[in-house]
Structures are given as C-alpha cells and as structure tokens.
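User: Hey, quick favor. My workstation is busy. Could you predict this chain's structure for me?
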Amino acid sequence: MKKFRQKYFLLGLVVAIFGFIGCNKDSRFGEIYEPTPPPKLPLKTFTKALAIDEMSVGGNKLDVLWVIDNSGSMGPYQKGVKDGTSAFMTEFSKQQSLDWKMGLISTGISDETYLGFESEFNWRSINPVLTFQNAVSDLGISSQDNEATFDPTLKALTDFPNFLRRNAYLALIMVTDEPEQSTVNDETAFLAALKVLKENTKLILTYGVFLKNFGSGDPSGAYMKFIQDTNGQTYDLRSSDYGVLLAKIGSDLVSRVSTVNPFVSLPERPVVATIQLKFNGRILPPGQKDQGGYWIYEQQNNVIRFTNVEIFTPTDRNVEITYEPMAEYE
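Assistant: No problem, here it is.
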C-alpha cells in the first residue's frame, strides 16, 4: 500500500512540474514563442512642389490610332506587326497610371474601321493583346484601294468625333510599304486638317514604320515631312524582330507621355494604406482621373504618380505628403 501511494505521489509531482513550465513562459525551463509585431513608426510628412509645365495638360490620357497598310505587298510585314503586338502592349500594361485607348484602321479609304471606334478598346478591355492581334488579322491583304494614310485618318476621326478626347495625347502610328497616295497628300494640309480636330498639335505624337529606302520612293515626301514637322520617329519596316521594334515604339510612347505626368519619389517604402496627400488643406483621393482620383502609388518605382494635375498651377503646386514608413524587421 505504501509503494502504491509513493507511485502516485511521484506521478502527481511530474504533472505539476510540467504544468508549471507550461503556464510560466518566463521560466528557465522553457518559453512559448510569440512573434514580435513590427514596430509602428511615426508618420512622416513633407511638402513637394510638383514640376508642372504646359505639356502636362495632356495628363495621363493617350489616344492611339494605328493605320496599317492592307494591300497585297504587305503580307509578310503585316504578320510581323501582329506577332510583335504583345511586346507593344506589355509596355502599356506595366503603366498603371496610363489611361489609353486605341483604334485600328487600314490604308483603304473604302474600308470600315477595324477596332476601337464602334466600341471602345482601352485599358479596361479584357485580353487586349489577343483582341488587337485578331483585329490585325481581320485587315487582310486584299485591299484594292490606293495605299493612303491621310484620307482614312481624317475620315475615321471625322466620322467618330468621340474617339479623340479633349486634352489627351494623340499617337498616330503609320505602317506601310508604299508612298502616300491620299487626295490630301500634302503634309501641311493634313496637319492643318488635324488641327481642326485636335486643337493642340503639341499633343500629337507620330511614328512611321516604313521601308528603309522609303524617302527615295516617295515623290512628294509627304510622310517624311509630316514626321519631321511633328518631331516624330521612323522605323524600318524590314526589321528582323518586330517584337523589339514595337517594344521600342511602346517604350518611347510611354516615356514621352509619362515624363509630363508629374511624380514624387519617396525616400523609403511606405505602408501603402497610410499614404495621404493634401493640396491647400484638401485631401486628394487616390485613383485614376475618371474615377475622381488624383494620384496612384507605383510600388515598382516607389513613386507617387499624379493622374490629374488640373487643380495645380505653376505658382500653386505644393503638395503635402504624409505616410508611415515601412519598418524593417526580422
């Protein structure tokens, strides 16, 4: 009987010891690990004067019009354009602040529009790369019309006046292997007609994808003069890699629009939910302009990019930025 009591006494003692260890996490016998939450750092506030100039009127809006030759001789080139479209679109999808829309027409004056006019094709569209590639395929290479860019462009923009947005950039990308054959084949007359539709010609960006020896084959030199008058760029239609060519156009286009869209670099990573911007005591909501917003945070570049600059002026452009820095901890 004595041995029986001793056995249960020892068992009870062991249970009590382990119970004490479990309840006392500061005991030298053991600890319960609880992760330490990151420290909450004090809010940081600073004021920045935005770089605002006359070109900022275009903001982040970009209307892109493709004019692609669909004559028989364009067969191999048109396929290259279609295959390289993904590289072009990638440049746009990376830019969260860019409010773009696109249209596609051919060089045939009797053709209907192919994309972006009857219904909008823009940054909200689902699967934009495939949609654009399918539209290029629909162009075909059987047009019997004269290869022209000026006439079809003016016709599309006149028939669909809502395609052009006020104070948005207009990027005109022309792809052809033949000289200009429009009835309006003078670049000065074409630019004057565009100015009626697009009041601020400083917002017109031009790109020509032509044959390398195109200049000598163009008696009037209309395309090349138009590109020069609008400070545009030309590329070789016989490029060995259309992905690289179109990526260059996309990258240049984005950079030319984005450089006039003010941004502020932050000195450290912020807790995004704590970012607050004020202008003259008024809180500026985040988001795109058409959603009532004024700015977005680009995590990749750690910058605040402004999507609406209409409330600022060259003499009144100080923005107060407040945020909680992101803590570094293990």
